[in-house]
Each structure stands twice: as structure tokens, then as C-alpha cells.
Specification:
The complex is a heterodimer of chains A (499) and B (129). Chain A has 499 residues and is of the alpha/beta class. Chain A contains 17 helices and 12 strands. In chain A, strand 11 and strand 12 form a beta hairpin. Helix content of chain B is 19%, strand content 31%. Classes of the chains: A alpha/beta (499), B alpha+beta (129).
Chain lengths: 499, 129
């Protein structure tokens, strides 16, 4: 830590014996005695008043950068603004206070919501089957690969155990495949940032289970030969899995189903504006083509009795891979996503993609003379620049990112994808005004000047945040995860005393 | 940029080095520079294991990235530098010395001809910048 700026004590340090948040009245019924062996003398919970707790957490929340407080161009995460009507809908008592074990006839509204969300998502991606179960993106990927595996086994093709993953894919793709018991083979990119078709075709054999492809990829580039890629995999008997995390790039304009994809997952928490990045749970529904509908994880919602209104209920796909989540997925996120879809409408959703792409290209073009962009062509929702210059040899992407925080901007994603040196992955999203984008451009250009003229200001950044530069290496090498461990470290006293 | 590439060592395309004299191997100066500060080293093999060229033998993690370390040649693992797990910073400080990772008894000496010499490897590093 460059300066001792820690001001907020831990709750346990705020504890004063006898303080409490709630005072109970004297009981008017006989008190039950707990068995002796369940009683304990030492329960080191903090003793604090309500106002202590509220101020503590409110102050901590103010240390955070949030999409509600500033620009958040964290590449690949689609940190768009989340409209507050989503929150209003999710808090409707009929949605907020139901229980997953309630009888289906008492939660028809919630089931109708899930049914319609399934239908809307199916329409948006152009694929007939949807399961809302997966808890988030990587869980959706895992589910998708399990469906792929179940399909091949059902076809009697047990030897198909190889999944191809391009080096421009999301980092979770190889992990999801490996967790499903698949063998992962990495496919390189060509000089335009597309999948290397020759390398791809070489791996298309009788052991091919499928391809996992992020389109647009993590370079923000739409695969220019997507039809050829899909055909090559299909001809070899494999399935094509689409990582839909970057759907914001062509929402309402193109559809995975029309591109020939067999399976895709969507990140409701990215594309459909629900809080994420520490702000809430995700949701990663999986959509599949007709021939895979029977393998979807169950249960899914369907109309079980026609009528006005119809009766909704849970049904199981015939060859379902089973449950992948307790109960029915993250329902609160579904409410927000459906609200967003209905509020935006068909035209609005298309506009999302148009503006997201326009904003990304505006930033790309305005910054391309200041920052080297290795795969510099018309991009989709994001682009990747290099955070390094030959005439500023000590400056790294990390220093640029830390300095950006001084201007009130969240840094872009660093060091990913790995195929770009000192990567800065920038995704502005559609919700930012030109004024915000211009302020970001000005900051990026100032930082580039400082890198040459005053590199120290970058090396020691950030300067305007509640915390200065943290020692990430020390933190990783000397993991201290609990207050108990921390309290035994000698340095602790000096930090607390300096408050 | 110039990275150390000792003359007596052989090199892989995945940035491992191999010492034909001692049988020791590890990751190169270029690799540690790309990774930045290494914070964690974990070995995936035990002494006595037979490994094939290209098998993962260790995982190295930095604040930036995680990377697998592969066996530069096929062989029997005869020694592992277990001190490294408590001193991951050695990978940055002394990649060809204190930070050797495993010692192999090659089972197929032919494979050594497939490795790069110092000059070829230095050029290979430059090409990737």
C-alpha cells in the first residue's frame, strides 16, 4: 500500500460490549430452557447498534465503483446500465415472496413469466428449446457440453470426446469442456482474428464431439467464415456450441439458430441488464436446436392445459440430462430479464446492438492512433488494444488501468485475451452517451502522454481512490483470508493505529 | 528486449528449458517475463512417474495468468524441486537456476533433437514480440 488510507474498521473492531440493534420486550410466555450442552459462553459476534451497521456497510458501498456511479468498460462483461424498473418488477410481492416448494397452481403467474421468457429467448436466438436452469454463464457452458455428450452417447457414438476451442474464446470454455470429461484441443486464430480454418479442419474427425465458439469472439470480431466453420464441424458429425456471452453485439440483428448453431447459452445478466459483477447472481439459460430439445435439463415450463388463461406446469424433456440446479434457476434474474425485453421491444433490442457496436467502433477509431490495436477492423461490441509503447518501456496495461481509476472510470479487462500483448479489452455498451465516451477518450490520451512524460504517476496510480495501489503479488503469495489470520499479523497494529 | 538463453540448454516451443547434462527442466526467462510475478507453483507429477513429452507436469500462476508447464522430453521423473512451492518468486529471480522444476531421465534421447538450441530459441522469442 503506497499510503495508509484504510479508514473503515471491521465490524468486530467496532464492537462495544452491551451494544445491540434490537431490544426484545419481556416474554409473556414461559421461557424454554435450551439443553445445557447447546449453550456456549464464547460467541465472538460483534456487538453493534443498528446505526453502526448501516454506516459501516454504506461507507463500504461508497468505496465501490458501480455502473450506477460511473462508466464501466470492462470488456466481455457487458456492464450496461440496469434500468430500475427491473428492480421494481422483481420486488413485486407476488414474485418476491413465493417459495419454490409452493403448489404449481398457486404460482401460475411466476410460471407464466418463465414460459414467456423461454419463448422470447427462443425467438431471439432462433432455436426452439430453452432451459432457464443454469445459474450463470460458465454453468450454461457446462450444461451445453453435457447435452452434447448425452446426444453423442444416445447416437451410440461414445468415441466422440474431443471439443475444439479457439484461442480467442472465453477463458471458461476450455474449463467447462474439461469438467464434462472432454478432451480440449485449442485452435489458433488467423491474422484477421478469425478461426484458422485449416487448423480447424485438421481436427474434424470421428472423435470430434463439437466446437465451442464465442461469436463475436473476445477480440470483438465476428467470425467472417462462420458458415464454413459450422459446416466443417457438422460434416464431421460434431455439434456447434455458441457462447452467447457477446450476444449484445447482434441482438435483434442475427440469430445463432440461423447460423446453424446447435446449442447456445445466454447471459441474462449481461445482455438483458440484470446486476452482476458482485451485484447479483447471474443466469445462463441454454437454448438448443430441434434435435437436442429432448436432452435439455429439467424441469422446464410448458402449458399443461390449454385455456384462457392456460395452466402452466413443469415438464421433463424425454432424455433430459437431469437437473443442473436446485429448484428452477435464478428466478429474480428472470423477472428482470423479461421486464427488460418487454420494455425494449423488438425495435429497442435491435437498437441495443446497433448502439453497442457504434460506441465500440467510435472508441476504437478515436484511440487507434494512440494505442496499437493488433486486429484493427470493424468490430462488434468491443475491441482489444495493446497497453504498451516502445518509447515507454516500463508502462504496462496494469499501470494504464490503475491510472484510469483516477478519472472515475472502471478499467477495461486486462491481459485477456492472451493473443494480444498487454491486452486492454474495452466494451463501452450501448448505454453510454457520446459525452462519456469523449471523456474516456480524453483520459486515455492523457494517460498515453503521461506514460512518456511522467511515468511515475502511472506506476503509483491510483491516487484519487479510497485505496492506493495494492500489492497484488504480496496478497497472492501471502493469502490471508480471515480476520482471525490477519489479527495475528504484526503489521495489523500499525494499520489500525494509523486510522 | 533481450532475454537470457543459456547456450548449454535446449528449448521447447512452449518456453520450457531442458538441460541435457543434468536432466533438469523449468520455464525460460522469456516465460517468466511474460507471466510477471509468479505467486504459485504446483507440481502435477510425483517422483517415479513416467511422463510423455508434452504432458503437464506443473502449473505456474502469476497475478496475470496461469500456465501449464509441459515435459520437454519423455522420461522418468527422478527429482522434483519441492522448495519452489514455498518460494514461487524464484521463478522470476533465477529461472535457470534455483527455479528448476523437475529432473527427468529421458527415455527417448531422440526427442532432444526436436528441441531448439539457444540461438533458435532467442529468435523465436523475438518473433513473438
Amino acid at each position: 500500500m503506497s499510503e495508509k488510507k484504510i479508514r473503515e474498521p471491521l465490524l468486530i473492531e467496532l464492537s462495544i460490549p452491551g451494544r445491540r440493534g434490537v431490544r426484545f420486550p419481556e416474554p409473556d410466555v414461559p421461557q424454554a430452557q435450551l439443553p445445557e450442552h447447546l449453550l456456549r459462553e464464547d460467541l465472538p459476534l460483534p456487538e453493534v447498534s443498528e446505526v453502526d451497521v448501516i454506516r459501516h456497510f454504506t461507507r463500504l458501498s461508497q468505496y465501490n465503483h458501480a455502473v450506477d456511479t460511473g462508466f464501466y468498460p470492462l470488456g466481455s462483461c457487458t456492464m450496461k446500465y440496469n434500468p430500475k424498473i427491473n428492480e421494481d418488477m422483481a420486488r413485486l410481492p407476488g414474485f418476491a415472496y413465493i417459495h419454490p416448494l409452493q403448489p404449481e397452481e398457486t404460482v401460475q403467474g411466476a410460471l407464466a413469466l418463465m414460459y414467456h421468457l423461454q419463448k422470447y429467448l427462443a425467438e431471439i436466438v432462433g432455436m426452439p428449446g430453452v432451459s432457464l436452469q443454469p445459474a450463470a454463464g460458465a454453468h450454461g457452458e457446462f450444461t451445453g457440453i453435457l447435452i452434447m455428450r448425452a446426444y453423442h452417447r444416445d447416437q451410440g457414438e461414445h468415441q466422440r470426446n474431443k471439443v475444439l476451442v479457439p484461442d480467442s474464446a472465453h477463458g471458461t470454455n476450455p474449463a467447462s469442456s474439461a469438467m464434462s470429461g472432454m478432451r480440449v484441443v485449442e485452435i489458433p486464430s488467423d491474422e484477421r482474428g478469425n478461426i484458422d480454418l485449416v487448423a480447424l479442419k485438421k481436427e474434424c474427425d470421428e472423435t470430434l464431439a463439437g466446437l465451442m465458439i464465442t461469436n463475436p469472439n473476445t477480440l470483438g470480431l465476428f467470425e467472417e467464415h462462420i458458415e464454413e466453420v459450422v459446416n466443417a464441424v457438422h460434416e464431421a458429425g460434431g455439434l456447434v456450441y455458441g457462447d452467447g456471452a457477446n450476444l449484445n453485439a447482434f441482438l435483434g440483428i442475427a440469430r445463432f439458430g440461423d447460423m446453424g448453431f446447435d446449442i447456445v447459452h445466454l447471459n441474462l445478466h449481461k445482455t438483458f441488464s440484470t446486476p452482476h459483477g458482485g451485484g447479483g447472481p447471474g443466469s445462463g439459460p441454454v437454448a438448443v436446436a430441434e434435435h437436442l430439445k429432448d436432452f435439455l435439463p429439467g424441469p422446464i415450463v410448458d402449458i399443461v392445459e390449454e385455456g384462457d388463461p392456460p395452466t402452466y406446469g413443469f415438464v421433463w424433456p424425454k432424455k433430459s440430462i437431469g437437473r443442473v440446479k436446485a429448484f428452477y434457476g435464478h428466478f429474480g434474474v428472470m423477472v428482470r430479464a423479461l421486464t427488460y425485453i418487454l420494455m425494449m421491444g423488438q425495435e429497442g433490442l435491435r437498437k441495443v446492438a446497433e448502439m453497442a457496436v457504434l460506441n465500440a467502433n467510435y472508441l476504437r477509431v478515436m484511440l487507434q492512433d494512440t494505442y496499437h490495436i493488433p486486429y484493427n477492423r470493424l468490430c462488434k461490441h468491443e475491441f482489444v488494444a495493446e497497453g504498451r509503447w516502445p518509447d515507454a518501456p516500463d508502462i504496462k496495461a496494469l499501470d494504464i488501468s490503475k491510472r484510469l481509476m483516477d478519472f472515475g472510470f472502471h478499467p477495461p479487462t486486462n491481459y485477456f485475451p492472451l493473443i494480444v500483448k498487454e491486452a486492454l479489452m474495452i466494451e463501452p455498451t450501448e448505454t453510454e452517451s457520446k459525452a462519456t465516451l469523449d471523456a474516456f477518450i480524453a483520459a486515455m490520451k492523457q494517460i498515453a502522454r503521461e506514460a512518456r512524460e511522467n511515468p511515475e504517476v502511472l506506476k503509483t496510480a491510483p491516487h484519487n481512490t479510497p485505496f492506493g495501489r495494492v500489492d497484488e503479488v504480496k496478497a497472492a503469495r501471502e493469502l490471508i483470508l480471515t480476520w482471525h489470520d490477519w489479527s495475528t499479523v504484526d503489521s495489523r497494529r500499525s494499520i489500525v493505529d494509523s486510522r | 528486449m533481450a532475454w537470457q538463453t543459456p547456450e548449454n540448454l535446449k528449448y521447447t516451443q512452449n518456453d520450457e528449458w531442458f538441460d541435457p547434462e543434468t536432466g533438469r527442466s523449468g520455464i525460460t526467462d522469456y516465460a517468466q517475463d511474460q507471466l510477471s510475478d509468479v505467486v504459485y507453483v504446483e507440481f502435477l507429477v510425483d517422483v517415479g512417474d513416467e511422463v510423455q513429452k508434452g504432458d503437464s507436469v506443473a502449473t505456474v500462476e502469476s497475478v496475470k495468468a496461469a500456465a501449464d508447464v509441459y515435459a520437454p522430453v519423455s522420461g522418468k521423473v527422478v527429482e522434483i524441486n519441492t522448495d519452489l512451492t514455498d518460494n514461487p518468486e524464484w521463478v522470476n529471480e533465477d529461472p535457470y537456476g534455483k527455479a528448476w522444476m523437475i529432473r527427468l531421465e529421458p527415455t527417448n534421447p531422440e526427442e532432444m533433437n526436436e528441441l531448439m538450441d539457444a540461438e533458435a530459441y532467442a529468435q523465436y522469442c523475438e518473433e513473438r514480440e
